Amino acid sequence: MTRTILRGLSELAVTAGAVLLLFVVYEVWVTDLWSDRAQDQVAEELREDWTSGTPDAEPDSGQAFAFVHVPRFGEDWTRAVVEGTDPDELEDGPGHYAGSAMPGERGNFAMAGHRVGRGSPFIALDVLRPGDPVVVETVDAWHVYRVTTTTVVDPSQSSVVAPTPGGAANGEATGAFLTMTTCHPKFSTRERLVVHGELETSVGKAEAPDGPAALEEV
């Protein structure tokens, strides 16, 4: 009787382990493949819109409108940024917090991105250091931000995406800021990893068609 129970528990543990493994494979690798394809599509569509000269003045939810380049993540690392941070939108790439500033504007240009799975755009967010460049490319300009701080906060701490990071949600912006958020630690949603930066310069594409020198920094 005891042996039968132990055998049953052992089989149950093996089954549970197999199910857990399949879930991890799906969440990490399968969703990465799907999101990578979706990211490629929205990036291609955005480049085509820019080439045709028909970009929308205000992006719709889920629509790509800019590219973010992070040299620290890799020489050619770039992702299209979509409007919105709902789950469906974040499956396509980093999402812009609706209502936050647009690239280069006074205020807080704030983005969220998955850390593990669904493309994992911000998996290496923790490697950013003060002074690292984050370059946001729009249809006609390059906006160079410099990382200032990295913090870990509770998910309820919405002040990180306020017009002035850490300030009131309806407060006045004291400058042009950048915020990037993702889950922390990896494989958990318990906390949020937050990287803040400040705008260093904006340069038009007519002046720098191949991009600013910051793109070459490592």
From TrEMBL:
Question: Which keywords annotate this record?
Answer: Hydrolase, Membrane, Transmembrane, Transmembrane helix
Query: Which Pfam families does the record associate with it?
Result: Sortase
Molecular function terms in GO for this entry? Answer: hydrolase activity
InterPro entries referenced in this protein's UniProt entry, alphabetically = Sortase, Sortase_Class_E, Sortase_dom-sf, Sortase_E
Q: Where is the active site?
A: H114 (proton donor/acceptor), C183 (acyl-thioester intermediate)
Answer yes or no on keyword Chloroplast.
Answer: no
User: Which parts of the sequence are annotated with region: Disordered?
Assistant: 85-104
**Regions crossing the membrane:** 12-29
Return the protein name. Sortase A
**Lineage of the organism:** Bacteria, Bacillati, Actinomycetota, Actinomycetes, Geodermatophilales
